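Notes from the pairing session

We agreed to fold both candidates in a single pass and log them together. This is the raw record for the first candidate, unedited. Please don't reformat it; downstream parsing expects exactly this layout.

Candidate A
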Amino acid sequence: MVWCSGAKLAAAAANAGALGLIGAGSMKPELLIEHIRKCRQLTQHPFGVNIPLIRGDVAKLIEATLSEGVRIVFTSAGNPALHIDQFKAAGVTVVHVIASVKHALKAQSVGVDAVVAEGFEAGGHNGVDEITTFCLIPQVADAVTIPVIAAGGIADGRGMAAALVLGADAVQVGTRFAATTESSAHANYKQAITQAGDTATVLTLKSLTPVRLIKNDFALQTLAAERAGATPDQIRELLGTKRERRGIFEGDVAEGELEAGQIAGMVKEIISAEEVVRQMVKEYQLAVQRLRGDEWPVGR
């Protein structure tokens, strides 16, 4: 959710009854502080901050988050053990994003409070083992004793119900919220999501770290280069810098990096975060009724 989830979207989600997250992955510490303060002005409800631990300035991002009194932090792309004592000393609830049972168990062992189990249907950076959400969630739920939040390929209430049936305690949703009115992403990027079909994304950049993107000129170039045997250094040169900003924030739909999940094919319109939450809850309730047999078709 880099370049998508700032104060406006996080607050809108929180006001609608979800846990809004500010995505620090595209922010400098000073900008993160600005968004935290703005979010507090826009909502009285809890919200959190997502911090990619791979960032070179991660220590400063953590310091900025804690100095502003944020008490819910989602970490990703790194080892939470390196920072867990600092978070716990500040009374922070820590949730770590994982993509395998092995890493879920490791995260639990170092003291995180919950894990986000993310299947490789998800947009953006993914696990190297390419485990699908449908397979990942029940295995992680069986392996750990802490809460499991399902992510990857969830955009409506049916997906939420399915995740809970598989053993998840909650769901995390990205792509559907990236295409909302409160998302800070460029209109071109949001439109690209709404125009996507079921085969619109590709998992590429595997020699560096797998990333799921909407197929555009850049994504197809990297895919072709990898198939031709390009080295990691050659792929890194092709990637260059600020591709995410170029695509998501600046709206270059040809040469930018358009991170989005496979579920983009289900996103047909740009609506408010409140409407997304309202629809998901209604769809979830209908799905549960159907599972109970209340609305199951005759003869099934």
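Candidate B (folded immediately after A)
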Amino acid sequence: MRRAPEIVLSESDRESLLTWSRSRTVSVRLQQRSRIVLLAAEGLTNLEIAAELGVDRILVGRWRKRFAEKGIKGIEKDLPRGGRKPSARRKIESAIIEATVNGAPKNATHWSTRTLAAHLGTTQSMVSRVWRANGLKPHLVKTFKVSNDPNFEEKLLDVVGLYMNPPEKAIVFSADEKSQCQALDRTQPSLKMYPGRCGTMTHDYKRNGTTTLFAAISQLDGHVISMCQPRHRHIEWIKFLNKIDREVPAGLDVHLIIDNYSTHKHEKVKRWLRRHKRFHFHFTPTSSSWLNVIERFFRDLTDKRLRRGVFKSVAGLVEAIESYIEHHNESPRPFIWTATVEKILEKVGRARAALDKIETD
């Protein structure tokens, strides 16, 4: 009578299998295989494991044997399957990739599956399969901007240092203005969502004025200090600085991470700073708004409250913004910065090298 191979697990293998068997991010197949091996290590027979997991006994035997022969690597990946090799795709794949990456139709900026198929004399489904297999998405484009600030590294070290290692007896804020927040009213009533249909809103709108949101988010606890003003000159910026000064306890230095907007560097602002010694400005490099955490808060505000909002007046818009921030401050959470200076410089270095190569070609 044939006996199933005995399974003996090392501590590291057991930890890996336990992690996979409970994980929600690994594939269902790997979860199942991990449970099979763990039960086999407890001495259960293939029939008992099959009954426990509700699977076929032959499946249990296959993965038990695979683990016994190849160890943990034997269950991580499937073996190559048989079947006829895709000869038709192999003939045309390189041409599809070459045309997609290095070419474009005469009357467009990029190919579609149908236009490229017609150009190469193949089928739309063939182009689609090749694109999926090679991660090609000509219809999508990402925006970027590499900073040309001559003091980029120095400013980067300063800002990231504040995020990851803030000074003692001080509080760090990420601050900025969200200008031109528009009070938009739709030209016709919106229809509510119901099962089987999403909500609707008209594509056109009425403009009922604008406001500018000044906001600073604490890197300590995520609390937001804010105010709305009709304009965003140095006068309003100084008003906002005075509000921060009133709300931050005395005895604490205040470090503000801000961008290079001219309002922040106005002569009257500099005089204000000389009178308020505990305030310190830290400027992000030019074209590096991604370094300013408050931009993430502004994005959430726009997505969750403003983009679909209907505002018949500026007062209604301001009320909505203040209500959102008040609700946020009831249980604030900070945005935790995790990217190190080394990783950022490495990524920026690759981007600059790619740009330099394009310019020299």
